[in-house]
């Protein structure tokens, strides 16, 4: 059964159970939950589609219902707990579906029976779900959950105590609102005493949980200053390093590393760690964990090392320890094998950097961040010379990571590639800070890798701009833009050493797709990104085909979007129009029909014309009355104008954006048509060249056939020589048999001589046998001499055959050289074709710029025509008024 069918059946079972909560419907729902649990459908469940979202919402509702049985709730929690380790699924459960609030509600409903297995299950799942995630304060029953945890840390059940402490450590970490709520409780002092008592617990996991909670709550208070003072902090360091190295499980190691990372943010404790006497030994032990095969352990160790690099003294120590030359291995029996365990942490870093793209993301990301930190320190402290061989090895592996992934793998893999490529480019930019390392990078990196990287990201960014804008698409677009700009900055650094890189760099800068990354970066709130964009813009602005006008429009659109977004956020309570975000790089467009602005303008013109017609009908009215009518009309139109002004202002920006898009589309269409015509002409030329090359290819194929027949004859001759060699091997075997017989005869002779010494009475018989043996030996020696002569004759024959083989091989080599010369001629023809293709691209770019100027002039002519029509209308109105006045005077004279 496929995933879609299972989800449909599950949704039907949920609806049946909500309509009728019978035992049969509950068993059917539980059966469907077990079926879904057996499928690997995490990507489908959290894809945001309607069917999976309804299933998840229904499961949340059923699990959070107090009337639901514990078995059914446990099955639902077990199903959803499978996805708590996946990053995106965990975020969706936490934010979109409020799984945290559902579990807290279940615990709150069963607070009187904490020994229930369902409560322990909810606590364990909550601990996994809230690890390294900030809890939303609007989640239901969070305060009741905190009270439950504070009350049951003194439970007799060790599993409940451990789960409560771990969950409390997650909730307290980096969450000021939770910390304030805990400190405001009346039993907070008793809670502190319980945590201090846990520091002497025999389970290291409980000790780490208690220390984590105390550091979050009391680090800047009197209790924390006493707990983490200069006397006690060294014991804490030793405990953390022991747990990190020896470990009480991955969970305990993760919390120990998180505790040390949080403590290092305090300058006083960071200074204590620099004075810790066992730091170098502990650091060597920690670096030895990089050789572990567990990616979670390695990523946590690298996170700890990156945190240590935030302290200048510790960063220098880590750099010297990792980048030092490998020490000689100790002999067996040395002290605990400490140096052998962590002798080459740099090679372990290379291993984790080059881990597969679909593997654990934190491993290669943390490894690249750590390498960037280490080489920043190495460049500042002049340690690059000792690490140059390691840099050469590292560049061979790292530059492979910039190769574009397969486009059929999906957006998720491309997002991971974008993240890793950004870190790789950051690392290469760090290496370019040193002249010698920059030269190494320029020798290893090819311009084609950078160009393909930029082309991939620009194309994907353009696809994202054309699709429906969501938060994930906007974040991915910003990420792609940032990597593109960093890659261009790297190309700018290396263009002096690489002439091909300079040409590729300037060609990319004139691409119109560069408008989106530059506009997003220039309007970003990240200082480093703005500076990078300004440096690239400084290089691109003097270029002739740089789209500066489009860039200005995009920046203005982004600024207008930000301003409008701020106004809407202020007036969100009184806003009545629906707003849809058509793209983060474009302004806001209201959800009204596209032609509403034009319709309102047309209606205004019709009303003006109707007013004029009314004035023509009333010809006998006095001039003052006519003026009063016009004044009333003008005042009415002014009121309407004031009412329509807001709509016109809101639509003007959208219309300008639509005009820009239409102009871009026309430009691209004209460019595509020109390219198509040129491609058609080139296709004809290539067809003619193809026919010529086919005739040449037929001649070459005939020559290849002749060469194949010659090589076949040589192979047959080689087979005959192989048969002779086999016969030679057989003769060698017989010779070896004769030698073995000879050895046996010598052994028998020695035995007989010993018997002659020991048995003097049988000397005559032994002499006779000895003479017989001597005669046999002489015969064997004669036979051996004859065989040796035969072997020498065979050797001379083999040498003659080998000479013939070498002659034939030389003939074959000469023929292969002729084939190689033909291939070089073909490659030269391909290079000439590439040059003509490059010239065609340059002419197409110039033609596109001329088309753009033509479209701008046509737009100006249309505006002038519209103004001319308005003037003609005004003249006709004046003529009509003047004619009415003259007729009125004539009638007055006639009456007199």
Low-confidence stretches: 327-343, 572-602, 611-621, 890-896
Assembly type: single chain
Shape: extended
Characterize the largest beta sheet: strand count, sense, and whether it forms a barrel: 2 strands, antiparallel
Record the strand order, biggest sheet. 1-2
Specify the number of helices.
35
Residues in β-strands, percent: under 5%
Query: Helicity level, as a percent range?
Result: over 70%
Structural class based on helices, strands and sheet pairing: mainly alpha
Cα-atom Rg, whole angstroms?
A: 43 Å
Distance between the termini: 104 Å
Mean pLDDT equals 79
Q: Work out the number of β strands.
A: 2
Protein name: Protein CIP2A
Keywords: Coiled coil
Domain CIP2A N-terminal: 21-566
Organism: Carassius auratus (Goldfish)
Helix-strand blueprint:
Blueprint: H1 3-19, H2 23-37, H3 42-45, H4 50-64, H5 70-81, H6 87-96, H7 99-109, H8 117-129, H9 142-151, H10 158-172, H11 176-183, H12 188-198, H13 204-218, H14 222-227, H15 233-246, H16 250-264, H17 267-274, H18 279-288, H19 295-308, H20 312-323, H21 338-341, H22 345-353, H23 361-380, H24 388-398, H25 411-431, H26 435-444, H27 447-466, H28 471-494, H29 499-509, H30 515-522, H31 527-540, H32 548-570, E1 579-580, E2 589-590, H33 596-617, H34 623-758, H35 763-895
Antiparallel strand pairs: 1-2
Pfam families: CIP2A_N (PF21044)
Coiled coil: 655-874
Keywords: Coiled coil
